[in-house]
Amino acid sequence: MSADEPAAAGHGFAPPYLLFLGDCTEPGYAKTAFGLRDWAGDRCVGEFALPQASVSAGLERLTMGEAAARGARSLVIGIANSGGKIAPAWIPSLAEALDAGLDIVSGMHARLADIPELRAAAQRSGARLVDIRTPPAGLQVGTGRKRAGKRLLTVGTDCALGKKYTALALQRAMADRGIDADFRASGQTGIMISGGGIALDSVVVDFAAGAAEALSPDAAADHWDVIEGQGSLFHPAYAGVSLALLHGSQPDVFVVCHQPGRTHILGHETYALPSIEEVIELTTMLGRRTNPAIRCGGAAFNTAGMDRAEAHALMEREAARLGLPVADPMIGGPPLARLLDSCLGS
Fold first, then answer.
1. Is residue 188 located within the same domain as residue 262?
2. Calpha distance 267→56 (Å, rounded)
3. 104 has which bridge partners?
4. Along the 346 residues of the chain, how does pLDDT read in single tens digits?
5. 119 and 200 together in one domain
6. Does the record's keyword annotation contain Repressor (predicted)?
7. Are residues 203 and 281 in the same domain?
8. CA–CA distance, 32 with 5 (Å, rounded to integer)
9. Residue-number span of the structural domain to which 87 is assigned
10. For site-directed labelling of 335, which of 75, 167, 176, 229 has its Cα 20 to 30 A away?
């Protein structure tokens, strides 16, 4: 590995990447592939999918051998499914990647080395099995101690609707203004993009708030940590990690992320999506436990697939209704500037 091509800090995997989409038919479960495409596209050489897949990241379809010939060094599992499972149907293709000399990088809960076929293929080829969802050693329980510096947390009405994208966009917008700011990754895709972080949903629950504190340590008074949110406080399965992240990160300001048109929790169709107002109310109430001054800076809408004029009109109506700025961070422009102004308190 050359000095100018470091592996992702603390995780030991290297670009370029081939994105693995498996047999994915639900776009919401391909958020890792989409995130790498959108925020680390220069590190991606293409994608691989099984015939059953109906989801694509829009990259060139390559075989394992073709990707290796083009210089790919890692096959990244681009799926973030419910429960973080590695499907049996994927294993022959993953073994083929190892035999082609590609490392496998996984953000799933299932451990690669626990799968005998993959362990054997890695031993044959010398390629590596890299699990991103491996928490650092020595995590402590949360203290609730107020830390120096400023913090922004993205929260959501649901999973997989833009919390990571919003955090990345707001950090970039801060940097463009000359503000000292860091993106803090709390999930596997964010770690793959930024090269560091802690996958909060892999931490033993007693230590989750402490992990959030470690993710965003003391900083200079004018420094901002923009923290990637996880799950939703209203999610029937994942609210626990959302609450631990909220308490441990102690945000001064939060941004509610929402996808217009989504009516029910992804993968839990009997649970209706909460309103933005409900999310603001509950986040504020629970967040005051560790930061009494917490406030909402506005909302970030994921309007992908909407007509641009329709999206702008909707965001203007919602901003007037909520009395808060609303923007699509991927569109940017004046609405994003107003959202950032509100978050900064200017």
1. yes
2. 20
3. 75, 129
4. 233 333 333 456 789 999 999 999 988 889 899 999 999 999 999 999 999 999 999 999 999 999 999 999 999 999 988 778 899 999 999 999 999 999 999 999 999 999 999 999 999 999 999 999 989 999 999 999 999 999 999 999 999 899 999 999 999 999 999 999 999 999 999 999 998 999 999 999 999 999 999 999 999 999 999 999 999 999 999 999 999 999 999 999 999 999 999 999 988 999 999 999 999 999 999 999 999 999 999 999 999 989 999 999 999 999 999 999 999 999 999 999 999 999 999 7
5. no
6. no
7. yes
8. 21
9. 17-131
10. 229
Kindly report the CATH number assigned to the domain that includes residue 178: 3.40.50.300
In-domain check, residue 9: no
Write down how long the chain is.
Answer: 346
Q: Do 99 and 238 lie in a common domain?
A: no
The verdict on 244 and 294 lying in the same domain is yes
330 occurs within a structural domain: yes
Structural domains of the chain, count: 2
**Using N-to-C axis directions, what is the helix angle for 239-249 and 276-287, rounded to 10°?**
50
For the record, the structure tokens of 93 come out as 């293709």
Please identify, among 96, 131, 166, the residue that sits at the C-terminal boundary of a domain.
131
20: which 2 tokens?
């693995």
Residues 79 and 185 in one domain: no
Take residue 55 and report the two structure tokens written for it.
């989801």
72 vs 13: CA distance, rounded Å? 11
Tokens in use for 305? 């697939």
